[in-house]
Amino acid sequence: MDDTASEINELFSSPNATLPQDVLLELQSLLRLHSISPQELFYKWESYSIKMGPDTTLTLKTARDFKKDIQETLERENRAKAAHARSDRRTVAPSRAGASNADVFGVLDGLVPGTPNGASRTQVNGGAAKRKSAFDSPAAKATKSAIQSSPQTPHATNGVVGATATSFADRPNAGQIMETLNAHIPLPDPPAESPAEPRVKLKANTELAKFGYKTMAMKLSEASEILDDRIDEFLQFIQEHHNVDDGAFGNPAKLLEIPLLGPAASTVAELDLANARLASTGDMDVDESETGTRPLGIMVASGPYTPGHVLDFAAFHALMETALESRPDVLVLNGPFLDIEHPSVINGDFEIPDNAIPNPDKATLKDVFRYHISRPINQLTAQHPSITIIIQLSVRDAIAKHVSYPQDRLKRQEVSLPRQATIVTNPVTISINEMVVGITSLDILDMLRREECVSEKAKMTNAMVRWGASLISQRSFCPVFPPTAREVFPKIEADRDGATAGEGEGEDDRIDVLPVGAMLDTSFVKLTEWLNVRPDVLITPSALTPFAKVINSVLVLNPGTLSKKRGPGTFARMTVLPATVTDEEREQNDIVPHKFFERSRVDIVHV
C-alpha cells in the first residue's frame, strides 16, 4: 500500500481497521482532482460531517456526496470571483477608436459633437428622475454593482459603441402614438373596474396535438412528399379558379406558351385603409348608444423584451403598467422572452434574488422566466382578473423544449403562469369571439425581404403590402422555402465572459455566434398553412418598421419589438367596435360579413 493510501486510512478509518477499497478509490480521486493533501481533505470531511450531522459515516454513498459537495463549493467560489473581476473591470469605461476627436484637455468645454464630457454622462446616469413602478425586478448580473431595481435603475450601456446611457424612465416619446389605422374611431376611456367575467372566448382553429412531433427526426423522403403535395394543392386551386384542364400545364423546359405556377411578386396597389378606402367611402358614423357595448380592447407586444446590452426587463414592466391602466380585454405576448441570442443568455450572465427561489445555486432558466415574466403577469391578473392573456413562444426562447418551427406549446404550470394566461403553439389560428386571428412569432417579413425577387413595377408598390400579400395569397405563415440561411443574418457578437461585444479587453475575448434562424422542419410545414379560412387579423411581429395595414381584407399587423437593441420599442393597441347588422341584412337571411377591418382601430404606440 502506497504512502497516500496509508495516510488516508490513518486519517479516515477507525482504529485497527482499513477503509473499503471503493471508498479509498473515491478519496484518492478527490486528491488527484483537486491537488490537495490527505490532511486538507480530512479537514474538508470534518466540515462536511458537521454540516450533515453527527451520524454521518464514511461509506461509498457519503463519499460520492462529499465529492459532489466539494465540486459545488468550488463552482460557487469561481462564479463569485468571475463576477467580482467583471465588476472591477467595468468601473473604467474602455477606450474607443471613435474617440480620437474627444476633448483631451477639456479646453473645448464639451463642444465636440457626439462626445459628451464626463460630467454630462454622470448627470444622465445618476441625476435622472425615476418613476415608481409596481413591477420591480433586480438589476441584471452584468450591472451587479448597481443594487437598485429596474425600471427605476438607469442601466449603463456597458460601452456599446454609439449608444447613449439614458435611464429607461427618461425615455423620449413614452406613450406617443406613431401610426394609426382608422383614426376616426375614438379611443374609449378605460373602465373604472374590471368586468366580473372575461369578455372574450378563445377557440383554437389549429390542431394543437399535431405540434407535439419529435424534433430532429426529419426524413428527406417525407419532406419531398410534403412539398410535392403543396404544389399539387396550388395546381388544383389554379384549375378551379381559371377553369384550366390538366393538359394545359406542360413542361417548363420547352419553349411553349403555357400557364406557369411559381412564386411571383404581388403588383397589387396598396390597400391602406387609412387612406384610399376611407377617402372614397368617408368616415363611419359611430354611435355606441345603440348597442351599449364597450369596444373590445386588445394589446399586442412582441419580444425581445430587453435591450441588446443588458438583460433588463424595464420595457416589459412598463407594458404591464400600461395594461393595468388601460385594462384591455386581451393581451397578446409574442416571444422571445428569454432570447437565446442575447449575449447575457448565451453566457449565463444573469441572476435572480436569493429569496426568489429556495436554492439559487440550482436555478434554471425557467426560474428566471418565472421571476422576470410570470411574476409581473401574476401581479397584473391579480388586479385585472378578467383579462385574457395569449402567450406564444419563439424558436429563440431559451425555455422552449420544442426548438423546431412549427413549434409546440409549453405547459403554463411549468412556469407558474396564472389561469388567465394561455400558451399557444407557434404558429396558431385562434378565434377571439367572432374574429379569427393568425399569430406567428417567426420574423417571416424579414425573410420575405431577403428572399423575394421583384420586377421594377413591383418595386413601385409598398414593400410591407407586398410581403403581406405574399403571405395571404400563399395561405401560409411560412411561404419561404428553403428558409433564409442562418449565415445570412448578422452574427451575434459577445464577449467570452458574458458581456456585450465591445467590453472585452482584446480581440481574443470576443466570439461570433450564429443566430438561430427559422429552424423549419419541412416534414411538418403543413401545420403552417391556413386550412379553411383566412384570418381577420394576421399578427406577424418583425424587427422591421411596425405597421398596420389592410391587405385583401386582412388586417396585417406588425407591432414591432417592445425593446430594441439600444432603447425602447413599440407595441400595438387595437380597439374593436361591436358588429352591427341592419334590418335589410336580417331580412335577406344570408351570410353577412362582419367587416372587421372597418370597425377596428389600431395604434402603434411607443412603450
Question: Any idea what the shape is?
Answer: elongated
Calculate the terminal CA-CA distance, rounded to whole Å.
72 Å
**Helix amount, in percent?**
25-40%
Number of strands: 19
Named CATH architecture of the domain at 177-211 and 271-282 and 291-579 and 600-606: 4-Layer Sandwich
* Category from helices, strands and their pairing: alpha/beta
Pick out the low-confidence regions: 90-133, 137-165, 264-284, 286-291, 498-504
Q: Could you name the CATH class of the domain at 177-211 and 271-282 and 291-579 and 600-606?
A: Alpha Beta
Radius of gyration: 30 Å
Outline the secondary-structure elements.
Blueprint: H1 3-12, H2 21-34, H3 38-52, H4 60-89, H5 118-126, E1 137-138, E2 149-150, E3 177-181, E4 202-204, H6 220-242, H7 273-281, E5 296-302, H8 314-326, E6 330-334, H9 343-346, H10 365-383, E7 388-392, E8 421-424, E9 428-432, E10 435-439, H11 444-451, H12 456-459, H13 463-473, E11 492-495, E12 510-513, E13 537-539, E14 547-551, E15 554-558, E16 563-564, E17 567-568, E18 570-576, H14 583-588, E19 600-606
Parallel strand pairs: 5-6, 6-7, 7-8, 10-13, 13-15
Antiparallel strand pairs: 1-2, 3-19, 4-9, 5-18, 9-10, 11-12, 14-15, 16-17, 18-19
Helix pairs in contact: 2-4, 8-10
Give structural notes.
The protein is of the alpha/beta class and 607 residues long. Among the domains are: 3-79; 177-211 and 271-282 and 291-579 and 600-606, Purple Acid Phosphatase, chain A, domain 2 (4-Layer Sandwich), CATH 3.60.21.60. 29% of the residues lie in helices and 14% in strands. It contains 14 helices and 19 strands. The longest helix is centred in the first third of the chain and has 30 residues, at 60-89.
